[in-house]
Amino acid sequence: MGSLGLRHALPLLLFLLLGFAAPLLAVIGYSVMPERTFGLWQAPTLENYVNVFTSTSWISFLTSLTFAGLTVVILAFACYPIAFGLARTFGRWAPFLTLLFTIPLFVSENVRMYGWVLFFIKNGLMLGTLKSLFGFEIESWLFTRGMILLGMVYVYLPFMLFPMTLGIAMVPKETRDAAYDLGASRFQVFREVDLPLSMPGIVIGLLLSFVLAVGAIAEAKVLGGQRAIPITHDIEIAFTYSQNWPLGAALSVLLMLVVGVLVVGVLRRFDLDAILGRR
Amino acid sequence: MIKHGSSRRNFIQGSAAMATAFATVRPALADRSNELNILCWEGYNSAQVLDPFRQSTGATVKAESLTNDPTMINRLRAGETNVWDLINVNNPWARKVMWPEGLIKELDRAAFEPFFDRMLPAFKPPYKWAMDDSGEHLLGMCQRFGPYSFVVNTDKISRATAEDQGWDLWNDPANAGKYGILESDDWNVFNVCCIAGIDPFRVHTDDEVAKFGEVAKAVFGGAKLVGDIATNNQALVSGEIDFHLTGGTYSVSPARADGAVQLRGITPNKGPMEGGKGGISWIEVTSMVNNPDLSPLAPQFLQYVQDPATAHTVAFAEGTFNPVAQMANPDCFSLFTAAELDAIQWDSLEEEMAKSIEYDIVPDYDRLLDIMTSAKREASAG
User: Fold this and answer.
1) Using the beta-carbon criterion (under 8 Å), do A225 and B224 form an inter-chain contact?
2) DSSP for B111-137?
3) CB distance A56–B239 less than 8 Å?
4) What is the per-residue pLDDT across B50-99, written as a single tens digit (0 to 9) for each?
5) Domains of chain A
6) Domain edges within chain B
């Protein structure tokens, strides 16, 4: 039956493989082509990787990883209480609040970013109102690194919140009640029951938001005024103004490798199958 | 099936062979009389420009807009000559790159040169940027153009001061944090050269390249923001910044059309380029791609946009607003309102173009861009 199923699934598998693997292979192929060329069938070279390692590209890698790391840490602490509330305490308000967190996803990220610009810009909605109503003149927060971080936390919040909510909802009420019956304090229940049993949702939220945040570009461009240059920006410049597709491809491959290694490392540390209770 | 000596496998093999054969011959049989593909700067891809052409021809017209010339040229180089029928880029590319590399076709001089006679005086035929080096082949049609150096908020810096100080505005350390930079890196290479006192449009010595790197780091380090046109205009209006590079009629006209006439494109009085000029201008040239199966609608579209009403629509298509060469024709000029003429700085256009060098290819662009990208990265790290 298994082989029959496999045979029936084969066309779809091939289609998916083609759609998923072919672009990746093309990127890897371009990364070993001579710089500033556009064909895929020339003698391979590692010069693009040498160029990356001898340039200041590490600054952009570090910028992306730092911002993604900070975003994930802030989101983890910010989202857990909200997720706990959504899963356990908000009751009939939970669906409405979930909707409020979901609605922004229906609006393009760039549009939301420009909305924040109008809100935060000098003499804009916030600073202009403060100035005209209360006479406060505050320096603009736009085009700073802090604003980039705020934008990333805002954009990626749902990707941490919803897996976390599901994770917390998976914790059986009976287990918590049993812990209380056995004399555990609220903190002990949180540490010994809630946290470990909701870990699948937390880990998935951490991974999802980190992988998305490390590829972020709009926040640094729109809210940050390029006060920080993430690696995705370097990749974009390589593929556009620089017209150095092989360099852009090499940067992309290295970014995939860095993210891949980090994700695999986390998955090894937290065995999702084990924490999901499959073995 | 047995009677015909066939089997299911044979049938599939036969079908596959036929499909392959059909796919092979299909390009030769393709009828492109009813479709047109345009690779262009924004404006030509707008519904205002394309819909009347679609309605009059019944054709399927697809236009893709990009915001830098090198990307468009390299898409043709990468094999997309069999996709596009028209390409709309800035002046030097047709004459210096696309024609020598066989990426574009020539236009029928007899049919198209009369249009140049009806353009502004600077475009009188044979117009340099529309012709090849020999002066025999007409390579494209002209329409939008404009000066493009930098933009100031004249409430903060007067036009006269900005024109006199010119690129030295960026050499004054007191101006750090008061300016923005448009994310238009090819033009930023030109401008960083100008700030460094170097003519961008020639090969540079190692000392000049080193100076370029130092200046790039200082310019990007002192910028309040690097962003797109909307962000820079918004920052000028709100008072976040007082001036920005790169900019000119093209970038500031939407803000001026919206009432922010205190913002103004500035062309410096002096600079490091030939004749001591400090400004840079651009002129778009639209050419027919050397497509082996070129749409017959390509020359028809080039004629369509020369019509006075269409030329006015192109000038004020969505995105940015620009002067057009067809404004020499009274039928076209009369369509522009006083507010529209003010938005495109018609009052100083001739003077600004005279103070500008026409945009050209930087011979060592790749080297300078890599240095500038690195400088930008290092400046952002603090």
Assistant:
1) yes
2) HHHHHHHTS-GGGPSSPGGGB-TTS--
3) no
4) 999 999 999 999 999 998 898 899 899 989 999 999 999 999 999 999 99
5) 45-275 (1.10.3720.10)
6) 1-30, 35-143+284-344, 146-280+360-380
